[in-house]
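Thread: fe (ii) ion complex, take 2
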Amino acid sequence: MELNRIQAEKALEEAGRSNPGPWTAHSRYAAMACENIAARCPKLSAETAYMLGLLHDIGRYVGICSERHMIEGYRYCSAKGWDKAAQICITHSFMVKNIESAIGKFDISPGDYEFMKQFVENAVYDDYDLLVQLADSLALPTGFCLLEKRFVDVTMRYGVHPYTVERWKAVFAIKEHFEKIMGCSIYDVLPGVAENSLS
Ligand SMILES: [Fe+2]
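Output below.
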């Protein structure tokens, strides 16, 4: 089944009913960040970017969980034939391409862990994978924010991890990658980012 915007919106709405929480609002802002940045990148589709951003955390439909949400999202999207969205359900957390760099708890079976380990090692990232990794760090449930604000928000919730700084550096490198393509700051295309970061 070809993914389209209406299906992506419907999937997130259903997932939000199944497991209500701030993660759906975060997903919507991540999607808008993807869309706005992609709109300034000649080789990317803003529409595709929006849908991939919207679905990156869709695995949270299963309920409150940690890293399990990645493999559940992968399965959900794969079952619908949304292959790129499925890939990003896993890759969005791996700006450092190493399973051990994930900051959450691996609340999954040893078999699923091994699958994810191999998947991350073998995944070939394109700009959509990188864009969702970036957008995930630009989106609070209340709006866009500076990367630094989201980094502190996540670190306060998950704690400091051996890969924390390496992950931050990787996201800043992705920011620079897109800014070179866009010819402006990513923050120029994120309305309300200053106000939201100050609140
Ligand atoms: Fe996310």
